Structures are given as C-alpha cells and as structure tokens.
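User: Could you check the structure of this?
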Amino acid sequence: MLKRIFDLIFSLTLFLLIMPALFFLAVLVFFFIGPRVFFVQDRPGRGCRPFKLIKFRTMSDAVDEGGELLPDNLRLSKFGRMLRCTSLDELPTLINVIKGDMSLVGPRPLLMDYLPLYTQKQNRRHDVRPGVTGWAQINGRNLLEWRDKFELDVWYVDNHTFFLDLKILMLTVKKVIGRDGINSDAETTMSRFTGND
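Assistant: Sure, the predicted structure tokens are below.
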C-alpha cells in the first residue's frame, strides 16, 4: 500500500511539474518524426495482464518499396536517438504509473511475445507491477544478457522494499545523467529475447 501511495503522489506531482516540457517534447516529436506523437503498445503487467504502455515515439513509419517497415536503424532519427539516450521518451509512462498499470520501480515491461518463452522462475517477474526503472536498469541496463537481466528482476521481486525503491530511483537519476548502460550507437534496440536455449 505504501508503494502505491508513493507511486501515485510522486508520479502525479512530477507529471504536473513537467507538463510544459511534455508538451514541448510532443511538438518536437511531431515536427521531427511525424504526427503520431505517442508509441502505444500492449505490454504484460502484474499477473501478465496486458496494458497499454505509453511512450514518445522515436521511430518513423518509413517503409520500403514493398510496403514493409524499414529496419529499426533506418527508422530511428537523430532526434529519436537523443530521446532514447536521455530516456526522455519514457516520460509519458508516468501516465501508466498514475493509472496503476505500472510502478515507478519494478521489472521493465517487455513484449507480450516473450510470455511463452519464460521459464517458471523468469515468469515471476510478473508477480509485481512493472516499473519505469528497476534493479536491472541500475545494474547494466541494455548491456546485460537476457538471462542476467531476468535474474536481477526475480531478485527484486523477492527482496523489494520501500527503501530499496528509493535507492533505485536515486541511482537511476545518476545513470541517466551519466548515460550508463545505454545502447551503443550501432544499436537502436536491445536484441530480441528468443528463449533460453
């Protein structure tokens, strides 16, 4: 209950404070990427129940001659890369926290496609609300192998406390400012999880 109260008060206060910046970023996304400002996608929440994740869009909808989307690295603009490197694309997920879909701290919500691929232990990452940031994010972020990331997620599920959440939030600010653990310039997204084999 304390975690949810803190999530709601902190995220609502922060959302109201940064609303002008959100509007400004939305205008920039519209100008540099296109009129569809937000990226909305089903992600698994607590108990694997799907919810609509909301982020700023970082990729265009550019297609090839056959109408197929171009590879990620060709659709990610310099502005979109900047949003990702600074984690500014994540700011709209505060709406998910306010709604109760997510927590400020918890395992990051991944793709619905991954659900059948988890081991029983790995699936325990869905025993808590997914987070805007998490234990894995301050311990390597996208530089981690999938197996290591899931181990950290499950460790958090078993050991999370209010004070650990505060520590993770403070370290997240430090990581974002230092740009630690972000994808290299050669990568636009982390490689897909294809199972444990």
